[in-house]
Design goal:
about 400 residues, 8-stranded mixed beta sheet, about 30% helix, 4-stranded antiparallel beta sheet
């Protein structure tokens, strides 16, 4: 990689911040300490900022070359409710039951370092850079707070990057089109009628009906979806009944759908509801359907990918730029920003064969990253923002 000198000089700063955030993880919508440290670092640089919600931070840098376009950069900051299993590292979690096992510590540190460099370079560009230190990505709630506050209004491009343990260090994925699936949560409440199990005809068995719903939901993918269209309808929880000898009066099903297009998403969720209601009615029960929108499909804009690629080729070896990464059924609420402006979401490789933990899956207690790889990510944030605002792609 060809890391620029203005990034290399911030290496210790970047890694130090990443280790601080890793050692002090906080759950979604509870990122108060993380927020305070972000604000402290922004104050040191003199970068203006304000809170978004209670635990997000919005900062902005106005270029000194006058008015122009606007680009938004995003880094998520929340951690997971799980144990950090890396007891042998100095930066292991100090907050019991919490762990940065997805890389958001790295995202916060990379964004802060990029902000510091961009502030020092504000005489080199016009327009405005908006910096989103976003809370609650893990529960699909943070991006919409920024959008609802109007912070995407007037944005011409939006860019973000996520570390990836599936990609070797030194490589970056800049893949156009669908990258991540939508994520919707559903709950189906079935109400029947209780009775003694010896007289099932006197009741309406909510447990049996819920079981039929679970089985029939699989037909949405198996028989009602084009085999070439990737869809998941998954049920992770079924609860019902109060005792072994009572016909269950109530049952609850909880699950998720994952899709790669808005049209397929709408159809799939509608068919989940219709299936539940129809089967419940068939047996004389009622089905109440609840749907929560966690994230839309994440689809990278082709023009934005071409722009970022042109910048990336000056930092990464061309052979290390991936344009055909396999789609992931995991969701990311960065998609909410892409619904408002053209942009793209990159995936930066952090898997170093010399550190086996960097190959650990995301959301695993041993998850770790190759910190050197963050330099390339930071360089891409900085150079793309400046290149775009200076009209390189006009």
């Amino acid at each position: 990689m060809n890391i620029k000198p203005y990034i290399l000089k911030e290496k210790d700063y970047l890694i130090g911040l990443r280790r601080y955030f890793h050692a002090h993880p906080e759950a979604s919508l509870e990122e108060y300490g993380t927020c305070a440290r972000i604000e402290e670092e922004l104050d040191k640089s003199g970068i203006p900022h304000r809170r978004v919600g209670e635990t997000g931070v919005y900062a902005w840098i106005d270029g000194e070359k006058g008015a122009g376009k606007t680009i938004a950069l995003r880094g998520d900051i929340d951690a997971l409710r799980m144990q950090d299993l890396k007891a042998d590292v100095s930066y292991h979690s100090q907050n019991d039951g919490l762990c940065h096992a997805c890389g958001h510590d790295a995202h916060a540190a990379t964004m802060l370092t990029a902000a510091k460099v961009l502030w020092e370079k504000k005489a080199e560009f016009g327009g405005q850079i908006r910096l989103f230190f976003q809370q609650a990505e893990e529960i699909g709630a943070g991006a919409r707070i920024f959008v609802q506050e109007g912070l995407m209004d007037g944005v011409d491009r939006v860019y973000g990057a996520h570390v990836s343990s599936k990609i070797p260090s030194g490589k970056v994925s800049l893949t156009p089109g669908p990258n991540n699936a939508s994520c919707d949560y559903f709950k189906i409440k079935v109400t029947g009628k209780g009775a003694h199990v010896s007289t099932p005809h006197m009741g309406i068995d909510a447990l049996y009906i819920a079981s039929q719903i679970v089985v029939n939901l699989q037909s949405i993918v198996a028989r009602r979806t084009n085999p070439l269209d990737t869809v998941v309808v998954g049920v992770g929880k079924l609860t019902a009944g109060t005792a072994y000898n009572i016909v269950a009066e109530h049952a609850e099903i909880e699950g998720t759908t994952r899709c790669f297009s808005a049209e397929t998403r709408e159809r799939t969720n509608r068919e989940v509801r219709e299936t539940a209601e129809a089967i419940a009615k068939l047996y004389g029960a009622e089905a109440e359907f609840e749907l929560k929108d966690f994230a839309a499909p994440l689809v990278n804009d082709e023009d934005a990918v071409k722009e970022v690629t042109a910048v990336a080729e000056e930092i990464f070896d061309q052979k290390d730029i991936i344009h055909n990464m396999e789609k992931a059924l995991g969701a990311d609420d960065f998609a909410d920003y892409l619904a408002k402006a053209k942009g793209m979401y990159a995936f930066v490789g952090t898997n170093n064969p010399n550190n086996k933990n960097t190959a650990s899956a995301h959301h695993h207690g041993l998850f770790d990253i190759d910190e050197e790889a963050l330099l390339g990510s930071c360089n891409l944030y900085v150079d793309y923002a400046i290149s775009y605002l200076n009209g390189r792609f006009d």
